[in-house]
Amino acid sequence: MEISILLAEQIIAMFLTMAVGFGVVRAGLFKTEDSRIISNMVVYICNPCVVVHAFQIELTDDKIKGLMIAVGMSVIVHVILIVGSEILSYIIHFNSIEKASIIYTNAGYLVIPLVSAVLGEEWVFYTTAFILVQTILMWTHGVNLIGQEKNLNIRKILCNPNVIAMIIGIALSAFRSSEVYRKKKASIMWDCSVTCMEASTSEKYVINYADSKVISKTGALTIQNRNDFDIVVHLLCEGEPEIVSDEISSGGCYSFLQVATDKEYTVGIHAAVDTKTEIKVFVYDGKDTEPYTK
């Protein structure tokens, strides 16, 4: 329900933006033909920049898997649209332009600001899958549908601004995920490993506290779970509310993004393990961590 409300708010905001554009044209402040300049700025500058920014993340296995799922679902959606438009054309007698307008909508460009506003910038990464699939089909099936070209035009696909942005984004993301970059960025690190002194039970929730104290200069602390089991981390600071992570999976990371800067935090770790089990946890100042493989 909350997401539906946020989505409705963003759609209303976009309609208000359209109304403002209509108003300034009617008032004579802009000419109708000026909209082409603004549209070109959005398509060739703004959206590609958003796509590149969306890829400025560490490419984990989960993110790559999620992107592949998004690509697969995007292909399925376009197949449904292509088949559906062909079926409807027998009933309503669509021409090629009408069928193309049904299949190749403005959703690729429209979805970026909506996803960014409703779900957050980190989710824009997955929307690039839809744009990629739509771009490839548009310059293959789409141009063939409206009869402009019969042959596959690889150059137009690769020169599409969003495809170029994805290629640049993937290259930058691969560099950010490299061992050299991560070691350089993760220069401030604390070993907060502990030994479990008492096993947790269904009646008793046990937290083991590390001897090391951590202090953030960036306003973010990232926990790296170097174990074969899941953990939950508690951050305690005098004068500040206790912060508790989600369950951090084996070999995974979790970032606390709103910690107080220049304040000393105590790290508490909960894990469903036996007594005297070593719990290996590393804490980094910021969102970057050293590479770790189980």
Key features?
single chain, 294 residues, alpha+beta, 4-stranded antiparallel β-sheet, 10 strands, 16% strand, elongated
User: Number of helical runs?
Assistant: 9
Give the distance, in angstroms, between the N- and C-terminal Cα atoms: 39 Å
* Spatial ordering of strands, largest sheet: 1-10-4-7
In total, how many beta strands?
10
The unreliable regions are: none
Reconstruct the topology from this structure.
Blueprint: H1 2-26, H2 34-54, H3 61-92, H4 96-103, H5 107-118, H6 124-145, H7 154-158, H8 161-176, H9 179-185, E1 189-191, E2 194-195, E3 208-215, E4 221-225, E5 232-237, E6 240-244, E7 253-256, E8 264-270, E9 278-279, E10 281-285
Antiparallel strand pairs: 1-10, 2-9, 3-8, 4-7, 4-10, 5-6, 5-8
Helix pairs in contact: 1-5, 2-8, 3-6, 5-6
Overview of this protein structure:
The protein is α+β, with helices and mostly antiparallel strands and 294 residues long. Helix content is 50%, strand content 16%. It has helices at residues 2-26, 34-54, 61-92, 96-103, 107-118, 124-145, 154-158, 161-176, 179-185, and strands spanning 189-191, 194-195, 208-215, 221-225, 232-237, 240-244, 253-256, 264-270, 278-279, 281-285. The strands form 3 sheets. Strands 1-10-4-7 form a 4-stranded antiparallel sheet, with no helix packed on it. Strands 3-8-5-6 form a 4-stranded antiparallel sheet, with no helix packed on it. The chain has a two-stranded antiparallel ribbon with strand order 2-9. Strand 5 and strand 6 form a beta hairpin. The radius of gyration is 25 Å and the shape is elongated. The mean pLDDT is 82.
